[in-house]
């Protein structure tokens, strides 16, 4: 932000995620710069030290403005928001307390779960449920028109059963192969092969029927023979139509089952992979594997594979029929096969490389697109739209060039096939005409040969076109296989050695000599980290930004496994627990919680979808979120957009806290979970959470030391090691690291703001 030397600088609670000492250094740097007008959105009292003037907002209106001293003297809401004591001041009686929920009566169930009019409810459901595919995020806000809804409702119910148990697909199996994914549909494929053989037989029999009709009906003027041949031809066409119809249904069923299996298997494997995989892999590349690669393989199975089998059977059968009908003409027609084989081998080598390159480059295009959409606000703020568009165009052009290389090969190969087809036809007609002239063959044989050649080179051209789809499917299969063979960094013991968690955990935590280094890092994030947490204890991890506090939470949640040492819960290394059962006993709230498209109630009940309305309400009550939810239009039914769009940061965090409370965890992990809340709301949440944390082991990462002061024990972390450990009251006066952090925090958060240095230059609001 400072590098561009802006004339207007907007800081949206920019220092909430850093410790007090780092924040002080940042503020000192801002004081040294007096060239821009700065607008600050402040949640911390310390941030106000930067301001020349402060504006107090409530209900979307400015209710007062002035200096800090002036507002301290005359604005009860300001004093309520930024008062140092944990309790709100008494003079809030004349202030609208909706923002705090302190003096308000608790909302009723009817207020929390209002009944929307039917039309409005339908509209909400249409715009919040969204799509389920790769564009679900982009389509989640599209309204469903009445005509579209009526058309969807008119569709017959889906009765197709994939015939594959989803549980078997979720099991880890690194021995991925095409045979493995086709095994569940092997009987369907066998039926398809039978249909293909019948279809090929019908195609091969038809020219022989035509030859019989010409030689024994047309030449001899025998109308009865013509009628018989016509009847047999009609029966042959009708039977082939039935066979093709059945084959189409069967191939579609097999393809959809394979598509279902691949997607479920790939998604289950992605869920097993550690966070390090997502830190090194572009999201667009992952999406390409889940969409483009899977679709390419499914499309080939549905259409390409059946076409290829029909073509191979037809070419083989027709080659035999050509030689059996007339050896000389047969050899003339088949003389073009050797150059065709050579051309196909060359085309395969060229196109396979081009397809691999194009698939990799479309992954980069997708990744760049997703990154630009996610970072659109930053691009607009720093006027980088043109640069982002130029980079996207460059990557798209790179993809276009790679596709054009394959298209150039196609433009040579396919016309060459047509040239060989025409050449063979001309040669057969030339030789056959001479044979008819000298009486060595009949007109029916020549007509049959012409028909056979059409059937011969038609499948060959189809094979060449199917080969294009095969190459794409083969690349997709390799890329999906690479994904499914990727080992998770979260190592799991053999299933028979895993310890089942049938009841609750006591919550005794021991990090025993833990060391950890992130992939690609040069130094350890944690080193010889040894910490014991008794059951039911609330522990606050404090320290400078980057000290390793969040890493401890990630190890406890088993998002990563330690490089050395062990993380034990109730005396057992958590690597020996069933991972899903262990995480079911956790409640995790990160600093920026992710909310899903749906409603507020859906997000609170995300960890327990079967929770009742009463249980959802109680979870929200436990974290002090009821009044905030009641203020939303629709209450618990308020629609939540993708990643929590439409909600403030504080509202998102309250919902995330309620979500963690609802699962009733034995181990609660809060990673700066209240950093985005204003001080008054944070006090209410902390007060409401006292009873919540008292009954379970809680680990809290805290930059606001007022939060740490409420913990039973405080652990000071510096450069991946524990440098201090003990109760707040002891460490506060010990003269060590914590004492220094506390003094810095109080100097900035305390009431003595009259001694601050006022920024000179343009007013800061």
Automatic annotation (TrEMBL):
GO molecular function list: ABC-type oligopeptide transporter activity; ATP binding; ATP hydrolysis activity
A GO cellular-component term linked to this record: plasma membrane
Top-rank taxon: Bacteria
What is its membrane topology?
A: Multi-pass membrane protein
Q: Which residues form the ABC transporter domain?
A: 509-744
Keyword annotations: ATP-binding, Cell membrane, Membrane, Nucleotide-binding, Transmembrane, Transmembrane helix, Transport
The name this protein carries in UniProt is ABC transporter ATP-binding protein
